[in-house]
């Protein structure tokens, strides 16, 4: 880390004046074990799945919208298509269980332990494949009607906090809807009787298929030393799961933005991550990650391309 | 404004879920008088000048650094060169008085009223030229050793607030340096005896040449209906001057980032602007504006390129 910071300190600017940009480049340098990381190719992984807990009336949208939005992703018409294009990033849509929802977590386990492990493996393999194809920076996102409830249940179990602390309006619930969400999460924690010391068990009990797959992507990115930009609350829940499985996973994580969902700030605080953006986004899809990619890439570009005080003949007041 | 918002509300996403991106696109639509603004070509204007108030010991860097950094800009080695390239923006460096400093504001007026008016005219003409060349989005920045002191004096006079409320470390002053800055601003307000009802008089008494030129750019951007992304505290002072001359100028302004300088939050609050970024940048040069340009462009791209609920066959829960 100190070598990347030293390289920044030779550039023609006051020390530390690039703030969070210096911090993110220093973290990437440490992950890669190099003083000056090269400019990365970028990809965004969006995992989609359906959720049986929608039966509890916890979403403003019906389950059919998950498949409709995946079709919209494939046709190029969604927000993430536009933002991936703007960011110059490859976009991968992964069907982790669209149309084959998890069981209703308010009544029992979302999936078997084997199904959770399978999604984790798939996610790890996807990260390894992206790394082998030369991707050096990944953004993650998700689509799944009902998945803020799964994310809230995971966060309530793993942080741990009371359900009300992590249940918000999601994509547009009213106060009654939020109350139904709190009730569903409360029941999910009761009936599943999870043990936070067994994160794969917690994931199987409460998690969505897309959240399990994304947790695998995060673990695989750490293994491949590919920095990965998180999106909002749901990818934050996947990050909590990944960090519970392997605390070193956090080393590869960059917080793209802060969601207005009340649980997200708690997740970022637990992970020790400072978000790059705070734009009141509550869309998901990886939109906040995509908007943060150019900032991360700019941080690396500054480290590569700026002149040093010596090269430019500029007086260095701090020397 | 309502037409741009209505266009956003037809897109395949929950209402208002793109937060600040929707707000910025709506403001640009209102400025242009169209529901869906077209994707703009971008330029960044960096104005540079020297400041006689450096004699008061108010900067961590010597005055010679202004000219050295302008040479660095011309050679392509500074942060703003890298960030303009990353943002796909043209970069214009304007010498507003490098090597020909303003008089020391702690002892009298910075410049004559005629000199201030001349810089305002030059700035307006530059904005008009950029608009005529097809530039549809401008970022502004500055370079000038000592210019946080000039900016602090302008803000203290125009907000108005006590000097201590708007004097911070700038690019790296220690506590004694900040105390010297507060003393210099206090004397500047005393000896110049400015009248906030005469903003051009305030500008001539306290302002830097680059700040005057940038105030002209901001006024010219409003006249040409070109949205303009502000940078940090110094461009904020130019924005205060422009808004005091013509309150409508604010309609064209977008706050790129929030500087850690204590006066900047006060300026943004007065202008009624919410910054897009908060990355602890304290560099200037237009760096925060440049980093915000892709976000503004993404907001416009979303409005142009996303599919509507009808086009994509997605169920619209809010209808």
Arithmetic mean of pLDDT of chain A: 97
Structural class of chain A: alpha/beta
Q: Tally the structural domains of chain A.
A: 1
The CATH class designation of chain A is Alpha Beta
For the largest interface, the chains and their residue counts are: A-B, 58 and 58 residues
Estimated helix fraction of chain A = 40-55%
Poorly predicted tracts of residues of chain A: none
Q: Shape of chain A, please?
A: elongated
Spatial gap, N to C terminus of chain A: 21 Å
The total of helices of chain A stands at 13
**Over all CA atoms, what is the radius of gyration of chain A?**
20 Å
Number of strands of chain A: 5
Biggest sheet details of chain A: 5 strands, parallel
Strand content of chain A: 5-15%
If you had to describe this structure to a student in words, what would you say it looks like?
The structure is a homodimer of 319-residue chains. With 319 residues, chain A is an alpha/beta fold. The first copy, chain A, is 51% helix and 12% strand. Chain A has a five-stranded parallel sheet with strand order 2-1-3-4-5, sandwiched between helices. Chain A starts with a helix and ends in a 7-residue tail after the last helix.
